[in-house]
Automatic annotation (TrEMBL):
Binding-site residues, ATP: 163, 165-167
Lineage: Bacteria, Pseudomonadati, Bacteroidota, Chitinophagia, Chitinophagales
Chief localisation class: cytoplasm
Listed name of the protein: Chromosomal replication initiator protein DnaA
Annotated organism of origin: Chitinophaga filiformis
PROSITE patterns: DNAA (PS01008)
Sequence similarity: Belongs to the DnaA family.
UniProt region (Domain IV, binds dsDNA), positions on chain: 336-458
Domain Chromosomal replication initiator DnaA C-terminal: from-to ranges: 363-432
């Protein structure tokens, strides 16, 4: 063994007692114990059994510093992995420590009721709009909040691109836990803050305090774990914290911009643990969900806006929720500063800074794609000769919209549908008009598609 690892990990060990083939050794911290068990358990086990026999066992006595020079440090006994005295999952670190441990959030004392959750109270599950884009993540979060640490969703990893609501949902789960379980210690921290805390504690040689503090949390929420990739030593500390919390039945909630399998620069042992629970993705919200988000935001802020403006904003801001809310704030600001009512003209002017262009050319191809997406019809089926009712109706509606919103001739429109002639286009348009007069559902579908095309043209 190299001298430096021996000096770091073995010199501080103190033999306490040997009784009934059980050797008890004292180690300086919980992190120290977990590091030995992770990296040197094989060596320790082989040596103990060689010296004391096959039935030999190893136990640890962990020192928990109390920070008071006139008091003896608190100790906790833990078994070694290669013993049979207790399963790993049954090993519990005490949740209540009578003596104070330094809190990295600079909150005096260590009693769990004194831990500030660092949560934004405005982030709630009620204010988080559910849609196809986030349904799995939100419902998993609701389940976790009702029974933190007691479900298979541990850890719950929420991932997706920027601005899709990962932080909102993660903090909302934390707030819901506090509402349902007021005695639970909940803590939210960004990965960057966690890294900075670790560095500060390393400089002051009080890493044990840092780790001990986090091991007292019931529900730990860490935001943007992809930033751990550039902090190798921080990963070691987080590994110790993760292991302890998970083994103690505590809940971990993590957010990331990528699924665990795509996170580069993280230790494989961490990635494997991230995959123990549920990884739920957050996708871009569809048009209907964006409408709901805007309407809820308007209700909460006491705003009123014409329906056509709301639709225009929802249709044109498609990347993420953050931009959607930013557009709404900009509209309100421009309306107040210019003392002008919010209308479509103002919306077009404001959204120029959010979208590349406020005017888009409507083509037959764009209408075809829009209708295919609306009815969930494969694009190639729209061009084939088939008598399936849903395909025929989708094709007829597309021809009708193409005639209404483009300047193409009937012949050109027909050519875009597998070389059909102009009489087919005429027949399709008349069929659509007739069905709109007799079938309310059909009419509603056409009207909604007309509005989508109009919005796209603005």
């Amino acid at each position: 063994m190299e001298w430096q690892p021996f000096k770091t990990w073995f010199e501080p060990i103190k033999p306490i007692q040997l009784e009934n083939n059980v050797l008890t050794i004292q180690v300086p911290s919980q992190f120290f114990y977990e590091y030995l068990e992770e990296h040197y358990v094989g060596l320790l086990g082989k040596t103990i059994k060689r010296e004391l026999g096959k039935e030999a066992r190893l136990e640890y006595r962990i020192v928990v510093e109390n920070g008071t020079p006139h008091q003896h440090p608190k100790t906790v006994n833990m078994p070694g992995q290669f013993t049979n005295s207790k399963k790993d999952s049954e090993v519990d670190f005490p949740l209540t420590i009578q003596n104070p441990v330094k809190n990295p959030f600079v909150i005096p004392g260590i009693k769990r009721v004194q831990i500030d959750s660092q949560l934004n109270p405005h982030y709630t599950l009620e204010s988080f709009i559910e849609g196809d884009c986030n349904r799995v993540a939100r419902r998993a979060g609701k389940t976790v909040s009702e029974k933190p640490g007691g479900t298979s969703f541990n850890p719950l990893v929420i991932y997706g691109s920027v601005g899709l609501g990962k932080t909102h949902l993660a903090q909302a789960i934390g707030n819901e836990v506090k509402r349902i379980h007021p005695n639970k210690a909940v803590l939210y921290v960004s990965a960057e803050k966690f890294i900075n805390q670790f560095i500060d504690h390393s400089k002051n040689s009080i890493i044990n305090d840092f780790i001990h503090f986090y091991q007292l949390i019931d529900v730990l929420i860490v935001d943007d774990i992809q930033f751990f990739a550039r902090a190798e030593k921080t990963q070691d500390a987080f590994f110790a914290i993760f292991n302890h919390l998970h083994q103690s039945g505590k809940q971990l909630i993590l957010t990331s911009d990528k699924p665990p399998k795509d996170l580069d620069g993280l230790q494989e042992r961490l990635l494997s643990r991230f995959r123990w629970g549920l990884s739920a993705d957050m996708q871009m919200p569809d048009f209907e969900t964006r409408m709901e988000i805007l309407e809820m935001k308007m209700r909460n802020d006491g705003l009123e806006m014409p329906k056509e403006v709301v639709k225009y904003v929802a249709y044109n801001i498609q990347n993420n929720v953050r931009e959607l809310e930013g557009a709404l704030i900009s509209l309100l600001a421009q309306s107040s500063l210019n003392r002008k009512e919010i209308d479509l003209e103002l919306a077009k002017r404001v959204l120029k800074s959010f979208v590349k262009t406020s005017s888009k050319e409507i083509t037959i191809e764009s209408i075809q794609k829009m209708v295919c997406e609306y009815f969930d019809v494969p694009y190639d089926k729209l061009l084939q000769k088939t008598r399936k009712r849903e395909i025929v109706q989708a094709r007829q509606i597309t021809m009708y919209l193409a005639k209404s919103f483009t300047k193409n001739s009937l012949k050109t429109i027909g050519e875009h549908f597998g070389g059909r002639d102009h009489t087919t286009v005429i027949h399709s348009c008349q069929t659509v008009k007739d069905l709109m007069d007799t079938d309310n559902t059909f009419r509603d579908n056409v009207i909604e598609l007309q509005q989508k095309v109009q919005l796209a043209a603005m």
